[in-house]
Amino acid sequence: MNIQSFSNFLRSLKKSYKAIILGFIGGYIGTIIHLPLPWLLGSILINLIVSFTKFEIQFSSKLLNPIFLIIGIILGGALNVTLLYNIHLWVFSSIMMILCVIVSTIVVTFYFIKVLKYPKLISILSSLPGGFATISAAVLELKDNHIHQKVLLSQATRVIFIVSLLPIIYFYEKGAANLEGFNFQNIYNVRYFYEILFIIGLSFIFSKVLKKFKIPSAMLLSGMFISGLFYTFEIIDARFPDLFINISFVFLGTALGSRLNGLRLKDLINIILNGIVVTALLVLISIIFAYILSITNGFDFLTAFLSFAPGGIHEMVVIAIAYNTDPIFVSYHHFLRIFVIVFALPFIIKKFNN
Fold first, then answer.
1. What's the angle, vertex CA 103, arms to CA 100 and CA 105, rounded to 5?
2. Mean pLDDT of the chain
């Protein structure tokens, strides 16, 4: 980074500091009230609340590219070499997951277009069953705040309701469990920092290649592809610490929340209510596919449902660990869904963004 670029970065921070501070406050409150994806959704919600006041906030778009790159690397970090030894056992369930994504998107898109009369692009982006951070990052590259508001709130409603619903289902079926998080154990030596800088640098270079081919969300796709490749084959082990991940989510949430200025309370309530309907449709479709998988291949129904339910990957895996429900199987299928969505997004945006 040269002096001019660093100077521009500092000016962008100065321009955005109010929104960022609010984002950290919202994220912290999110952890206290046990909000799913607390640092992301908490920062979104507090900026949404402030948007209804006279307090002016803004977030510079110049801060987004490094955040997109880091989010992509974080997503790729969900993979490890264990998948290579198991993936051949999950061919049928993988096919079912891809079909589930396609069917869910088509059904919910139909609802948005026919019932709510949404434009096609907003309908499809609002219907994608998973990858909230990924979809949000892609949406931020579009300049239309109308798209930001409807897609963001529809997707946020999905995450909140599904992640809140599943622990209740598991408690009813299997009793209480200690829902604690899980972390990769990093050793912060010279090699760790070398590996982190290497994966960032290589992802950045590859993003430039993707941009030359005019591929949308180049930073996000590059980070996810490069890190996924290197983590899967265990070429590198170093991963971002939780603190760094949470800071990235605060910046992303703040960027999203600050785009909700001008949203009317009536519109907010309407989007949330329709988001609940959409969530019910997605859960029903997930149940159907999980049931088919359980009767045709003998998978445990609750394990299959946890793998197919379109909630946050981290939250779903935490529930799997708490209830001793094959976290590798669960995390793989959630990552597969995100993978499908991430690589479909450029084609969706290119075709329907007119």
1. 105
2. 84
| Domain layout of the chain by residue ranges | 66-352
The pLDDT tens digits of the residues spanning 283-324 come to 999 999 999 999 998 888 988 999 999 887 766 776 776 677
Distance of CA 43 to the CA centre of its chain: 14
How many CB atoms are located within 10 Å of the residue 277 CB?
A: 14
**What CA–CA distance (Å, rounded) separates 43 from 57?**
13
- What are the residues whose beta carbons fall under 8 Å from the beta carbon of 203, sequence distance 6 or more? 69, 72, 73, 219, 222, 223, 226, 227
Q: Which two tokens stand for residue 114?
A: 């026919």
DSSP state of 89: G
Neighbours of 63 (CB within 10 A): 18
Of residues 157, 173, 166, the one with CA closest to residue 319 = 166
Here the tokens at position 99 are 């079909």
What are phi and psi for residue 271, nearest 5 degrees? -65, -40
Cβ neighbours of residue 240 under 8 Å, at least 6 residues apart? 70, 73, 74, 77, 196, 248
Query: How far is it, in rounded angstroms, from Cα 94 to Cα 245?
Result: 28
Tell which phi-psi region holds residue 215, choosing left (phi > 0), alpha (psi between -120 and 50) or beta. beta
Determine the residue type at 116.
L
Q: What is the Cα–Cα distance from 24 to 249, expressed in whole angstroms?
A: 10
Q: Which residues of 16-47 are buried (b: 16+ CB within 10 A; e: fewer)?
A: bebbbebbbebbbebeeeebbbbbbbbbbbbb
